[in-house]
């Protein structure tokens, strides 16, 4: 069976959002990336503890570590893999953010194959759970070395590889290149997970046909749309994918909001939910005006009242009460 994964997304994939994705058929999720240095030197820091939090209802969670110091990566993997909290440790070799990659971490490791090898070898040896790696195609179009790094990962004992079909320099621009993902799948004997530009169930079918990967990792396509996992599973099993109504969308949005409010200080939860609200309402008529108002509100009850008023307005207008995900997805890049 094809494994459907939720990608690690900084500032997004905390346990409330992951839980909603699991409820819609996600098979495996990853924490937001955790700094090995930050964990080793300040394991009780609130920001680090927040990233490490897992809800007991999450069926399979992999912790993602980033860093460039082999000793710190080894130490963090040794300790965290023995907490009994995670089913795996993932090494981040894909983050393209400038402050991460420019320092030699994340996708910056792909420019330092010898260092990448040492980190993978030491983390695999130290970890009590399987180790995976998430990588990009390379630093730029002139330095695509994903095949070299993939073979290296397999040689080091890495259990599986996830490949995002873009270079570091591309960031999220242009189209993900699934040709290279297919090359990786053909070149190694461990499972390969494909990532990049999966916004609809049809996208998923096309990517699978083009690459024959063992699993799909969803990222931007799942933002505000945990139903994408169920839609892909429906398509894979020959059923017509189901699109949620606006009322259903807002109902889940409210659950998301309440989970965040119950976990974090109110002012932080209100601020963090603003981006999620924008994603949940993407493609809904009148959503832009609602988002502008939400971004100035500090009382969560006022936000909730405003969102329900949007639902009532759309339903009373007689317009289709469905979030237009497929049309909106075409403009993501």
Describe this structure in words.
This protein has 333 residues and is α/β, with parallel strands linked by helices. It has 2 domains: 3-236, Aldolase class I (TIM Barrel, Alpha-Beta Barrel), CATH 3.20.20; 246-317, Putative flavin oxidoreducatase, domain 2 (Non-ribosomal Peptide Synthetase Peptidyl Carrier Protein, Chain A, Orthogonal Bundle), CATH 1.10.1200. It is built from 15 helices and 9 strands. The protein has helices spanning 15-23, 36-41, 46-52, 70-80, 98-101, 113-126, 146-155, 178-187, 201-211, 227-236, 246-263, 266-280, 287-294, 300-317, 325-329; strands at residues 3-6, 28-30, 34-35, 61-66, 88-93, 131-135, 160-164, 192-195, 215-218. An 8-stranded parallel β-barrel has the order 1-2-4-5-6-7-8-9, surrounded by 6 helices. α7 (146-155) links the parallel β6 (131-135) and β7. α4 runs parallel beside α6 (113-126).
């Amino acid at each position: 069976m094809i494994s459907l994964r939720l990608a690690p997304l900084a500032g997004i994939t905390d346990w409330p959002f992951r839980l909603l994705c699991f409820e819609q058929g996600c098979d495996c999720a990853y924490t937001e990336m955790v700094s090995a240095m930050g964990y080793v030197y300040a394991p009780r820091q609130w920001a680090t503890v927040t990233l490490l939090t897992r809800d007991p209802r999450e069926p399979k969670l992999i912790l993602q570590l980033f860093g460039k110091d082999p000793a710190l990566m080894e130490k963090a993997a040794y300790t965290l893999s023995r907490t009994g909290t995670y089913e795996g440790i993932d090494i981040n070799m894909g983050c393209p953010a400038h402050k991460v990659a420019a320092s030699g971490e994340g996708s910056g490791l792909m420019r330092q194959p010898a260092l990448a090898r040492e980190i993978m070898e030491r983390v695999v040896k130290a970890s009590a759970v399987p180790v995976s790696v998430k990588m990009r195609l390379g630093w730029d179009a002139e330095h695509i070395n994903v095949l070299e790094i993939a073979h290296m990962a397999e040689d080091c004992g890495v259990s599986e590889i996830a490949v995002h079909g873009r270079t570091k320099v591309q960031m999220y621009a242009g189209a993900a290149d699934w040709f290279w993902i297919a090359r990786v799948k053909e070149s190694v004997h461990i499972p390969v997970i494909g990532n990049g530009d999966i916004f609809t169930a049809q996208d998923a079918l096309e990517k699978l046909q083009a690459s024959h990967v063992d699993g799909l990792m969803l990222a931007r396509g799942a933002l505000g749309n945990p139903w994408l996992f169920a839609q892909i599973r429906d398509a894979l099993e020959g059923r017509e994918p189901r699109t949620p109504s606006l009322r259903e969308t807002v109902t889940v949005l409210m659950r998301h909001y309440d989970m965040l409010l119950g976990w974090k200080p109110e002012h932080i939860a209100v601020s963090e939910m603003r981006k999620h609200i924008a994603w949940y309402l993407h493609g809904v008529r009148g959503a832009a005006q609602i988002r502008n108002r939400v971004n100035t509100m500090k009382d969560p009850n006022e936000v909730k009242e405003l969102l329900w008023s949007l639902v009532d307005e759309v339903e009373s207008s007689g317009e289709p009460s469905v979030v237009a995900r497929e049309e909106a997805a075409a403009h993501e890049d």
